[in-house]
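Journal club prep — side note

Before the paper discussion, L.F. wants everyone to see what a predicted structure for a comparable chain looks like in C-alpha cell form. Sequence:
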Amino acid sequence: WLGRVDVVQPVLWAVMVSLAEVWRAAGVEPDAVVGHSQGEIAAAVVAGRLSVEDAARVVALRSGALRELAGRGAMASVALDAAEAEGALPASVTVAAVNAPG
C-alpha cells in the first residue's frame, strides 16, 4: 500500500511534521524551513503558516488528485535547460517543471 501516492504522500508529510516536533522537543528551533512537493506543506506547518489540520486536508486532497491523474501522462528527467527542452519537444508536449538551476 505504500506504493500508492494517496497513501505514501500523507505518510511522508506526517513523518516530516512529526520529525520537526521531535527536534523542537530536543530544543532545536529552526531559523528557516524549506520543502518540495508535500515538503512545502510540511514546511508551512513547521513555520506556523498552516495549521496541522489545514495542511493535512491539503495533503490528502492533493495526493487524491494525483492518484486520479496517474496513468494519464508521462514524465522524464533530461539534461537540458528549459529552452533547449522546449525546442526539442513536439507542440503537444510542454515542460511542466524545472527542478535544477541549469
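L.F.'s comment for the group: The first helix runs from residue 5 to 25. Keep this in mind when we get to the figures.
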